[in-house]
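User: Sequence for Polycomb group RING finger protein 3 below. Tokens please.
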Amino acid sequence: MAVLGNPDMLTRKINLCHINAHITCRLCEGYLIDATTVTECLHTFCRSCLVKYLEENNTCPTCRIVIHQSHPLQYIGHDRTMQDIVYKLVPGLQEAEIKKQREFYQKLGMEVPGDVKGELCNMKIPLDQRNGDAKSEDTTNKEAGEEKPEEDNDYHRSDEQVSICLECNSSKLRGLKRKWIRCSAQATVLHLKKFIAKKLNLTSFNELDILCNEEILGKDHTLKFVVVTRWRFKKSPLLLHYRPKMDLL
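Assistant: Structure tokens for Polycomb group RING finger protein 3:
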């Protein structure tokens, strides 16, 4: 109650330098960009820094724990929560990073990826508000509804779709009643793990491996990536197998 009654405590400011150690990458010593966390020990780094490091190492750069003997890249994951925290704490960092990415792709003559476009759209209203040009919420919603009624109501149906057959190749798990599914090409292997775990009533999706052509797929791989790199020139549907982790065929 003393804190609630003291407005100074509620508005107390903290110097950014006091928390820099928690929001910077140990490898490049800069603020985290595309924050990626090691699932084994939960230490976080910039994705590009960590991927480059793991090309020649299989241990965590901070605590030196072995991530995986042969496939450490499959045991790291994007940490959206941490990245959101960094962007909120460091003024101008998100805007500067998106500008760099945009300039990079334009310099190469490539289309700006959807993720960057999405972040630019999300930032549009806050930037307008800072300049005093923001419109009222009712007016904005009305205009958005008039301009893009179909997109708001039918967002994912325009995505490229992938047909998949999910087969079980282990006697320790039962097969799915409906093994043929169709979903967005932007869905990841992690999404499939969660889907299978829910259908089979497993305690955790981390208990599963998903394979294509007898090769374990990384959880961050999109289905588009899997099709292009492992199922090219083969007929639909994309055939994937699932099994418990460490279950030898």
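The domain at 16-89 is CATH 3.30.40.10 (Herpes Virus-1).
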